Amino acid sequence: MYLEDFEVGQSFVSPTRTVTETDVVMFAALSGDYNEVHTSETWAATKGPFGRRVAHGLLCLGLGHALMLRLGILEGTAVALLGMENWQFTAPVFFGDTLHVEFDVAATRPSRSQPDRGIVSLDCRYLNQDGMVTQRGRLALMVRCRPEV
Predict the structure, then answer these.
(1) pLDDT value at position 113?
(2) DSSP one-letter string for 18-72
(3) Hey, which of 34, 50, 79, 83 would disulfide with 142, CB 3.0 to 4.6 Å?
(4) φ, ψ for residue 67 (rounded to 5)?
């Protein structure tokens, strides 16, 4: 979708994805975040705040972003993620949780400096299989305008 295709109020729902132990192990290795709340079942069960291991919040942020891209609506038109506003991590994501993203177009505008692109603001909710919101906030994306023919 090009900038002109987005309308304020449009809603989208992504496909789902289950968070696995492999995801967490790979993210820990990539990020260097081996906090025991993510990597030690014994520690998490006895000392952790949730009684079991949880996935990294930033891992789930990335997974949610990837789920949004799987819709294909930004294929070939997304230029950049410009920012996040009021992002909140509202609930833990456990190994085996299945996530999806619901998002609405909050605003669109042409770029002030690049006439071939614009900004789309999306209000996002990352939900687990029970409908609990695990993350929420607004993303600003730069997208291409429809080419003139």
Answers:
(1) 92
(2) E--HHHHHHHHHHH----HHHH-HHHHHHTSSSSS-B--HHHHHHHHHHHHHTT-
(3) 79
(4) -65, -40
Domain borders along the chain are: 3-19+56-144
Give the C-alpha distances (Å, rounded to integers) separating 134 from 13, 15, 39, 80, 145. 15, 16, 20, 24, 32
Cβ–Cβ < 8 Å for 3, 85: no
Sequence-distant (6+) residues with CB within 8 A of 10 are 104, 105
In the chain, the N- to C-terminal Cα span, in Å, equals 17
Assess contact for 126 and 136: CB atoms under 8 A.
yes
What is the dotted CATH code of the domain comprising 3-19+56-144?
3.10.129.10
Q: Which residues contact 142 (CB under 8 A, 6 or more apart)?
A: 78, 79, 80, 81, 82, 111, 114, 117, 118, 119
